[in-house]
Design a protein that fits this description.
- It is a single chain.
- The chain has 231 residues and is mainly α.
- A hairpin with a 3-residue loop joins strand 1 and strand 2.
- It contains 9 helices and 4 strands.
- Helix 1 crosses helix 3, helix 1 runs parallel beside helix 7 and helix 5 runs antiparallel to helix 8.
- The protein is elongated.
- It has 2 domains: 62 residues, Orthogonal Bundle (Arc Repressor Mutant, subunit A), CATH 1.10.10.10; 135 residues, Up-down Bundle (Four Helix Bundle (Hemerythrin (Met), subunit A)).
- The longest helix has 25 residues.
- The strands form 2 sheets. A two-stranded antiparallel sheet has the order 1-2. A two-stranded antiparallel ribbon has the order 3-4.
- This is Transcriptional regulator.
Length: 231
């Protein structure tokens, strides 16, 4: 049974994000094919896709290698997310379905419950599912694809600290869903912009010009004051 190239691509990408392959390390078709139990054909196709996404580069005399993004390139990704996630929330307010709302509300209930109990282990994955569902609700395949790629690359380049106040963070998630449910695209955009800006401050580069130390991403935005967003 032939394993599709997109499955091989997902597997290699996940391993790059998880740090299985070091930045700058070679990715030989033969070794990859052996690792994932496939022929070299889907591996070759997967490497082309990953190169287009920016995870892989082709070097003369070395072939495919894991990319080595600069600090500026990493910072650009966070800036792009701060622009695109609010757009996605705005579109979701216009195009969401009842199924999207049901999932979003369920995630908010779970997130708020875990946050109140101080159970932080599940909060990161719940937050990822929340933002993935919010993007899906935008109804824009191009935007969904861009946000998905951004999430993968940001997870690869950054470690993320737990929010200082997870309860407040999930209150913001709830406010986003309320705006989306009401079809209030401008409010959904505004709350998501503030939420994303604050979340950016919790990101630390996994690589840095200062040895192994990764610097906190600096933001000019002060902590979000949700009282100013409530009607």
């Amino acid at each position: 049974m032939r394993i599709p190239a997109h499955s091989v691509c997902t597997a290699i990408r996940d391993d790059i994000v998880a740090g299985v392959y070091e930045r700058g390390g070679r990715l030989t078709e033969e070794l990859l094919a052996r690792r994932y139990g496939v022929s070299r054909v889907p591996v070759r196709e997967a490497l082309r896709t990953l190169e287009a996404e920016g995870f892989v580069v082709t070097r003369r005399h070395a072939g495919a290698c894991v990319a080595e993004p600069t600090e500026q390139e990493a910072a650009d990704l966070l800036e792009m997310r701060m622009l695109l996630e609010p757009l996605g929330a705005s579109r979701a307010a216009q195009r969401r379905t009842e199924a999207h709302l049901k999932v979003l509300r369920g995630l908010v209930r779970l997130g708020q419950e875990r946050a109140r109990r101080g159970n932080s282990e599940d909060l990161r994955s719940l937050g990822g599912w929340f933002h993935e569902t919010l993007a899906q609700a935008s109804g824009s395949p191009a935007l969904i694809a861009m946000l998905t790629q951004l999430r993968h690359k940001i997870a690869w380049m950054y470690a993320v600290e737990a929010p200082v106040s997870p309860v407040e963070s999930w209150t913001e998630h709830g406010a986003i869903v309320d705006a989306v449910a009401r079809g209030d695209s401008e409010r959904a955009r505004a709350i998501t912009a503030l939420h994303t800006e604050r979340a950016t401050g919790a990101h630390r580069l996994r690589f840095s010009g200062n040895g192994d130390r990764a610097d906190r991403v600096r933001t000019s935005q002060q902590a979000v004051n949700m009282s100013g967003l409530r009607h």
